[in-house]
Amino acid sequence: MPMPDRITLRPAKPGEGPLLSALAFRSKCHWGYSPAFMAACRAELTVSEADIANPARHYHVAESGGAVVGFYALERTPPNHYELEALFVEPKHIGHGVGRALIEHAKSHARRLGAMSIRIQGDPNAMSFYLAAGGLQVGTRESASIPGRDLPVFCIPLA
Fold first, then answer.
1. Mean pLDDT, residues 77-89 taken together
2. Mode of pairing for the β-strands spanning 150-157 and 117-121
């Protein structure tokens, strides 16, 4: 499937938590994880209304043709850094530029907020994506969903 004709990025709206949660789950499923693995990740993939309303978090969605095709979330981590808490794309749009539009928007948004860098705990399947976006692998971190599973951690310098 080609890249959507036009992608619009906007802040997430109240009431979109269930929509974003379902999108995150579908996106994670794209990588072929087992049902047991996905069940263990459900809580971590859930976006609550409190998450969207939290002033320390910045949720933005990508729309195309009136449909949400992806989203990201940034969270401030003092002093002047942000963590990419989420970046998910509808499976049929993976590999067609939506993720690139989201990460570039996240970088620009974080710069406007005064961030010096963005830290990312990424899925191993997204390693090449984050490296291509300017990320440097700086270590690993244990998954919050799967005990004993270490995930790569990246840093994208913004200065």
1. 90
2. antiparallel
